Each structure stands twice: as C-alpha cells, then as structure tokens.
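Lecture 7, part B: from sequences to assemblies.

Below are the input chains for today's worked example.
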Amino acid sequence: MNDMQTPFQIPSDVCAPQGAFSPRRIQALMLRHLYVLRRSWPRLLELAYWPLIQMILWGFVTKFFMGHSSWVAEAAAVLISAVLLWDVLFRANLGVSLPFIEEMWSRNLAQLFVSPLRDAELIAALVLMSLVRTLISVTPAALLALPLYDVWVFELGITLLAFFTNLLFFGAVIGITVAALILRFGLGAESLCWLGIFLLAPVSAIYYPVSALPEWLQWVALSLPSAHTFEGMRAVLFDGVFMWNHFFWAVGLNAVMLAGAALFFLYMMKRARIKGLLMQQGE
Amino acid sequence: MDGRILPVIEVQDLYKSFGGVNAVDGIGFRVDAGQTVALLGGNGAGKTTTISMLLGLLSPSAGSVKVLGASMPDERHKALGCMNFSSPYVDLPKRLRVWENLTVYAHLYGIRDVKGRIAELSDDLELGGFLERPFGELSAGQKTRVALAKSLLNAPKLMLMDEPTASLDPDTGDWVRGYLERYRAKTGATILLASHNMGEVERLADNVLMMRAGKIVDEGAPNDLIQRHGRENLEQVFLDIARGQNKGQAQTNDRGGAAA
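Predicted structure of the full complex, as structure tokens:
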C-alpha cells in the first residue's frame, strides 16, 4: 500500500451550513434504493408479480360474475378497478415500510443518522420511493387488463389520478406507522408490514359498498380515506358521477393521518434515541 | 468571552442508564482541536455508549455533551456535517457497489464534486480494484477501507472511530493506523477512538481515557499512564484497571466531571 502518498485533498464545500430540509439528501436516499432496484430483475419482477396474478385471478372472477351477477354486470370494470386500486394501497404501504426495514437489515440506520440526514427527509424519501415502487408494481397489471378483459382503467382519466393519489398517501400513512413500530420493537415485528394493511382491508370497502357493513362498522369505514376512495370509484363506474364529498373526505383524512403518522414516527425516533435502539438494529 | 479556545468535544457530568443500570456514570472530559484521544476499557465499560452520545444517536440521561459547539443530540444537525464515524459494527448496504455506497453518502454530506471526491479517496485508500464490487462481497480489510473512505468523504474536522482495526490482519491494521496518522498530520483533524488494541492506542493517542463500569477511572498520555502505574506497557495498565488492581502509583482518580 502506498504509505508514502500524502494526497488528502480537502473539498472546499464541506462543513458548510446545511439546509434545514434538503431535496438533495432526499434524492440521495432514493438513489440508494434505486441502485438496488435497477440492477435486480428478481426484485423488479417481484414488484409486478403479485398485482399481475391478482389481475388474472380477479379478471376471470369478473368474467364469471358478468353472467351471474346483475351488480357486476352493471359495471364490468368494478372488480378489476378495485383489485388495481387495492394493490396501489397495498404497494404504497410496502413501498414505505420495506425500504425502511432494508436499512435495518443492512445495519445502515446508524450510518444514516450520523449523517446530516434529517428525520423528516427520511420520511419524504420513503414516501417518494413508495410512489416509484407502486408505479412499477401496478402499471403492468393495469395494461394487462386491456388485452385480457377489454378493460382500460385509464378511461377513468383524472378521477383515476385522484383515487391513486389518495390511496398512495393512505398507504404511506400505514407504512410510516408500521416503520415507527418496527423501529421501536425491532425486526421481530416486521410482519406488521403485511398484517397492518390487511387489518384495514375489510373496513376499506374494496369489493363491496360501505352499506354492506354493519352500521357500527360503517362509521369505522368512513373514518378511513380508503373507504371514501373505493366508494368514489364505484360512483364513477356505476353512475358516471365523481363524488366530491368522498374525495374531500379522503383528502382531509389523509392530511390529518399523514401528519399524525409523521409525528408518531418522530416520537418513536426520539424514544429510540433514549433507549439506544439506533445502534442496535440489525438481523 | 474569556478568550479560551472552544474544545471540539466537551462532556460534563454525563450519565446514561438503561433499566436502572448506569452504562455511563458521571463522566466528564474535553478534547481539543487536533488531539487524538482514545477511550480504553473492557467490554461493557461504556465506550460505545459514550461514542453513541457524542454522535447524537443516544440521548443522555443527565449531563451535557457538546460537539463542535453543538449540544447533542438536540443541535446535532449543526455538527453532523463536519464530523464522521467509522465502526466495523455498523455496515453499509451490502448489495450496493462500493462506488454506489460512496455516491449516496457523498450526496448526503453535500459534496459538490461527487465523482472527483470518490476518485481522490479511491486513490488515497486504493479502492480502485473493488469500486465496482458489492460491499457485501468484500473482505474485512477491504470493508474497513471502504468504511474509512465513507468516513472521510466530508473531510471531517472530527472523526469518531469505534475499534477501527478490529478483525484486521496486522498488515492492514498497521496500514490503517499509518493512514490515520498521516491524515491527522495533514488536516489537523481531531480523532476520538475506542479500541482494545493497546499498540494502536500507544501509537495514535495523545491522551487516553481509561473507563471501567461507566466511569473514567484514569486519564493521561500513554507514557504517563505506564509510568504512573509502574508498568512496562499500556496493556499491563489496562489489565490492572480492568481487574480493579492498581499498582505503581495505586491511584484511581474519581473522574466525575473533573476533567472538563
């Protein structure tokens, strides 16, 4: 090794005052996950695999019900759209929680938190990564619905964007909450990534209207942005009407819940600093 | 202002307890600019806990920690851009190639010329042969050099190192120590390291803080400690202190906050 070298070039830009919220640090953290994704075809395949299988399965269920259910026959796309939007919610949740767990698996959390990265930047990067992973997940399934079942979900137009955005943010709310719990309770609680979202599935009124639930459970459902979004989706598909009240409820609930989830995460970070959890994370 | 030079690290009456047990028990010390200070002690002496508090990863139960003038952990963002950390017990993402890892951290530290800086460090630390390889596939020595490169990306004023040569062969360990000596000589950086390697501490450290059961039980330059304890080398001093024996001067200082 070259012991005689004395290079030690010092960059002139280091140790400068760091901004309170830096898009570049968010980009850096996204880059870390994009590097992994772009080179790993099994990971990309895995992202798209389950939504495709769901689409194929529910597509044939829809075809069958078309001849046996007047409700489904009224709007052939209702089940297929529900499947796709459920996957948006599911993947958005995993899109936040899995990259966070990956930092724990790779024992990288301490390195991140001794860098200038802020907790809020970490949350922002995870939400943006969730958007990327969700788009990779559901786009092939959405495209496949056209040749297989003659359903073009993009016909929903701007309303699809409204549903997608609301579910993306609600998925992020669940993902941030799960990440905070895993930070507190360790990798032994990692199954919460999958359990948490399925706990909400029955009251999200994905495949049936909220009115199908018992009355007391309807109140629970209507306190979730997901139920408002799926009600809105059915209104568009059955009646051709965009229900603004459901849209605004979903947006409002998402705003409150996103703020709550972020505060919960920051609180858990503070607890992790008190309990010494940031140095101990790993497999 | 009284004209004193501000220390790079100033720790006062610091406590950290877990479940009623004090992992750090009322320590105090200061580290001035350009010094290399070693934290020495057996397993469970409180070294890593102390370093974690200096890094802002752990909140003190009581007392204060100031690093580069910033109170940790509340004001950590004032200091974290000017310091860095290396430990064999904290990894980098294993699936990322070496250059990808360094690129991510260069962006996190706000380096403008990312490629140029990585090229400089690659030359300095001889990373060229494995820049394209995933971090997880590297040998322990190669990983140490990459971790060192990561910790030097921002040319830190303060480096905190937890057992920087643990699990390295003697040749690689010697090279790392040589590199740290040259780095400090060229940049005037301050280094605080925790180590079990007495030769390393004797070679690198201007000052040694001996820890046992969460307390600093002795402090001084390596040669002063050896003389004071009437021993031939630092390892014998370490064993005396770790086993609770004091030969030579037979003095165990109660360091509670007195060193600051």
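Note for the exam: The mean pLDDT of chain A is 86. Keep this in mind when comparing with the next example.
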